[in-house]
Amino acid sequence: MSALPARHGRALGLHLYLSLFLAAVLCGCATSRPELAQVRALAAGTDALNAFSELSQRHVDTYRRARPYLSPTEDARERLLDAQRRAAQADVARLAQAVRLYLQALGRLAQDDAYDVQPELTSAGAAIRAWPGSGIDDRHVSAYTLLLQQLARLAGATSQQAHLAQVLHDGDAPLQALLAALDSLLALYDKSGDNERDMVLGLLDVEIAYADTPQQRLLAVLAKNMQQSKTEEYRLLGLRHTLARRQLAALGREHAQLAAALTTTEARWTDR
Question: How far, in Å, are 101, 107, 117 from residue 104 at the CA level?
Answer without folding.
Answer: 5, 5, 9
